[in-house]
Amino acid sequence: MTTAPDPSALLDHNGQPKPWLEMPLDYEAARLGMAFHEAGHAVLAMSYGIHVTTSEVIAWNVTDDGYALTGKTGFNAANVWPWHFAAHCAAGQVAQVQYLMAYGLWTPERAAACAAEHDREHAIDALAAHGYLLGRHHVPAGGKSWGMVQGMARQKIALLWREIRTAAHAMNEHTQLTGDQIAAMTGLTNPPMPGAVS
Q1: Side-chain-side CA neighbours of residue 49 (13 Å)
Q2: What DSSP designation does 23 have?
């Protein structure tokens, strides 16, 4: 654990503080869960053609015996199907809940603590900017609901669970991985940076 991160790491895509949820787990289990969250984002991003720059777990002390955890996955998306972008946003929460189930840690309280409203709001705003409707709790006319997008993410995560697990354990050990490191260890392809000349 470290000192508090740069304050910008605690802000959402609109520059607002991310909501805090207490995870009722010990530090090691909660940290691995956060690594699964970020690995879910990174692996699904790559599978959908999104270039991943880095993915990391950020942990720091808040009291002598207390800790805080967050994570961050950097990416560059261009010419990505909007619903794939949304599913990549949903993948963090879905992968974290799947981790709880796979490791015998699931409880309703722990599953609720995986909620990532900032990821949902990012997807809603990004899709709206391109004329697509993503509803929080309903299916808007011509669009999809967040629940539908989570279902898309859940299906893809089931297919890529080995890759997510590999990346999550490596991230937990090393704190930060580059997209190319994740690609090398999983056998996935990290798509080129948009606009890069090969």
Answers
A1: 9
A2: -
